[in-house]
Records
---
Amino acid sequence: MDFKEIVMKRYASKEFDGKKIPQEKVDELLELIRYSASSFNLQTWKVKVIEDQETKDKLLAASMNQPQITTCSHLLVFCADANIMSNIKKIEKMMKDAGVPEAGYKGYIDMMIGFESSMNDAKRVEYAKEQVFIALGNALNGAASLGFDSCPMGGFNPVEFKKILELPENLHPAVLCPIGYGADEPKPKMRFSKEDVFF
Amino acid sequence: MDFKEIVMKRYASKEFDGKKIPQEKVDELLELIRYSASSFNLQTWKVKVIEDQETKDKLLAASMNQPQITTCSHLLVFCADANIMSNIKKIEKMMKDAGVPEAGYKGYIDMMIGFESSMNDAKRVEYAKEQVFIALGNALNGAASLGFDSCPMGGFNPVEFKKILELPENLHPAVLCPIGYGADEPKPKMRFSKEDVFF
């Protein structure tokens, strides 16, 4: 399927049929997410992958009782990772381990450290979240390309999610992406005109 | 090209060769951007498409003198549109014009109005920006699928951009995406491990 077909086929499924997506397909989707672009390649995301029904049921009330949560095959909880310094250190180690000489990465690492220290805590979360939305895009298009459906969902209570999923302090649930096989039909796409969007 | 190939082929080009992308290819990319997913389908983005060299040259100093700005074919300035209420009204009008009976959209419009009024101005910008990053993802993957290159860029001065491009108050430059033909070679992709990203 070419990319245009993927983009036009993708839709936000409002209810799934409960069937499980084969594990190898889920794994393929996770690879597409993992290879998303991000600012400085900092990959400021962690994704909780929820398959068991009990956890999904527990999250339903914190998701405005939307049926996608309990009818999906897997629920992906995209979290922004605000511990940016830890990611900078991981990148530095990966480059060192890959045999890149220090002169080849020091400027890049120093630039990231300077950037990181220019932000306050709220800004770090905001920055990390922006990258999460690039990865979300790969999840949505990726699902369509692999033959199943998805639904980007912002309507949930991140404080409750953090509590129920016992997330560490640095992880901030940013957006949900249940995946599965849609039990509904896509509606025709409605978009603002080209003249309205581009100038 | 299948989606996995697109994701693996895409890279952040650090310099372009200056050649122009044919207009019909640029138009295809803009359609891929326009059909991106967004929260409530609110499409809180506007994209300034810059082709003329004079404007690109003017923006160079406000982009940390990065050569992508002046060597690209087209520079896309992705702006977050914080006038969310205006977009809600446009969606309402589109539904009405499409012949949807009022009962079919009133609940949806009212929910969006309630959500919009729950945000302050800073939150509106943050929310609009998050959607912009989904559209950015379609631009990056879209460029690779159409046979040219791109570079997501956060290193620029949005205040200066707003002044130089004479943007209205509600538009906030969020991220740049120069497109063109890369004059550099992609480096091997480096990503955190699967075990590190998914939990």
---
Amino acid sequence: MKQVLAEIITIGDEILYGQITDTNSQWMSAELDKIGIRTVRKTAIGDSREAIVHALQAAEAIADIVLITGGLGPTKDDITKHTLADYFGAELIFDQSVLDNITRLFSARGREVTPTNQQQAYVPANCTVLQNPIGTAPGMWFERNGKVFVSMPGVPYEMKRMMLETVLPLLQSKFETPYIIHRMIKTINIPESTLSDLIESWELALPPHLKLAYLPRMGQVRLRLTGIGTDKDALLADINRETEKVVAIIGKYFYGYDDDEIETTVAALLLEQGKTIATAESCTGGYIAHQFTKHAGASRYFVGGIVAYSNEVKVSQLGVLPETLAAHGAVSEETVRQMAENVRIRYGASIGIATTGIAGPDGGTPEKPVGTVWIGYADGTQTIAKKLALAQERSLNISLTANAILDLVRKQLSS
Amino acid sequence: MKQVLAEIITIGDEILYGQITDTNSQWMSAELDKIGIRTVRKTAIGDSREAIVHALQAAEAIADIVLITGGLGPTKDDITKHTLADYFGAELIFDQSVLDNITRLFSARGREVTPTNQQQAYVPANCTVLQNPIGTAPGMWFERNGKVFVSMPGVPYEMKRMMLETVLPLLQSKFETPYIIHRMIKTINIPESTLSDLIESWELALPPHLKLAYLPRMGQVRLRLTGIGTDKDALLADINRETEKVVAIIGKYFYGYDDDEIETTVAALLLEQGKTIATAESCTGGYIAHQFTKHAGASRYFVGGIVAYSNEVKVSQLGVLPETLAAHGAVSEETVRQMAENVRIRYGASIGIATTGIAGPDGGTPEKPVGTVWIGYADGTQTIAKKLALAQERSLNISLTANAILDLVRKQLSS
């Protein structure tokens, strides 16, 4: 079976000038991967006819499927549609179904269709229109010499819905694809080189159709094991066998697979044990609560938390003793212990966790430089406090602190 | 003056397979842009010799500067360095200064240098080594026919530090660049097409050396006005004049420029007026507190907040009346008013803000479908509550709720 190859083209000066991050192409390639289509290149270009034509030609040369996002908004900086029409040798024609969709969307919001929006109902004559149920710009599907080109809006949730409901099913019916299986094996609190040395002999003995990659990110290293083949069951068995081996070697640094995050691993342990958690955050400022609550169903184990940013709030709302703050300061073992213990009791949770530290870039002292952080854990039976010496960068310090306390909770719940 | 052009190449299967988002190339192009270097393409490819060579050739054909990230980690999936050595016709040679740097880093962390790390001290003979003060993989600078190629590690904070301290200054000394000035004009709570119609006659009258782009994101539309020229003062005067005009047209939907975010605009107003704020979050679950506290200096205006996720916590820690919850439910005007008023008083802030709603995907009812959200504002003189009817998607609902309440605070502080 021939491997089906895709290129993703992102159009927009805003990507080139660095005003926005392209998250679309990541999501798209992950979805293609799930159905056995391999992305071989991603190209981002500006709103320029010449660049678009060049990118289409280059993509047509190496890929079977070319997915294009961006350059379809209602405003004047968009030339994608005209360039596509020319590239495929067609005129723009008026499409009533597109205007009907725009009208429906606008009347639902109590708005009038503007002339700018009416222009969006013109599409190249030789494309198949893909309706956009939640936006005004339609998608467009072209075919030439067995290759498929799909143009979609750049607004992430519009693109995602169009991909899931229309584009991916159509691609699956058109192309025959091999099985690609990925297993992500997630580790925490072990550096990449140490992990590499630890699992070296296992890695060297991997069969040739399985490939390993190291993906470090914010204090975590994820291992991605990828298998490709035609026999799905055999491939899955191979992946499972090798995963089991390597997880045994990694031991306590391993916390989950695939879509697991450290906070969802903790959440699963809490649910399994019928426990709840509450947070008392100073330096992480609500970030840990957000890590729990960004996932649906968080109310089953997360009761709430406090962001005790000022010392006054630490005293009045969290019951930290003023004399503790006076004697040891807010960034201290004594303070973090009281924070964890008190939030547990006040919020009626099984477990209380706490953070206090100097996230930076300001606020450091010779004794407590930027990156000095205390984390605390209390479960009614014991209280644990731990000091971290982190980095210079504020957002990194916030993430690494969250990692550290969540991993401490994981270990306590697993022991 | 000839425009200096750059291409950014990102290497790594993890980008192609969609396991991680490429944030490096966004940051890099924004930095290049600041010094008048125009990024004309971004290409992401896998860890394949053939793809790397092809991308280098394509970039060499269109750009003066080629910046490469990724593919330099200590582990075995990296082939970038060998391919670069071949591409520039050189052997890999041992570099003592690189090993010294690795040894220094490891002893600071109390670790031994592993054989895997020692391999990182081999570099192509004809490159200039760029030391990596915070990581083990060195950067490499190559020149050929007046063009510059720089290979950097893919770890974001290592790459950023190398760019800021070494690469950008070297590029500025090597190339003569024009002035590019961007002005970002940020709007909130107005749809892109409405905004476009509102400012149409201004936009049509723009001088040809000024270009406008619409950048919609999560309920906000940013306008980017870009000017290019050789006379910096004249260009800046043009940008300032047109900005003043369009801001007057946009009126109450305008909230800030450039790096301003809605929360930093609110923060600036609070500081200016000597006021403080506290948050009571239910459906946003700590996200709004994190928006404030992710910025340095938040302690000057943000005293803290509560994530009142469960009804018990709303009652015990925030003083919402049990009879209110029983009669109207947690997602109601009455509840959000009490949340905002009580957090203001209990946390000793000038202003209290609150959110309660159904973020989804579960928890909706016919009367209160997913996306039903109440936001509240209290300043001691008045309390304002507002109902939102948002979307189906959890993370979008969290962002849009934060937008709405922060914009409400902005308007109150500006009126």
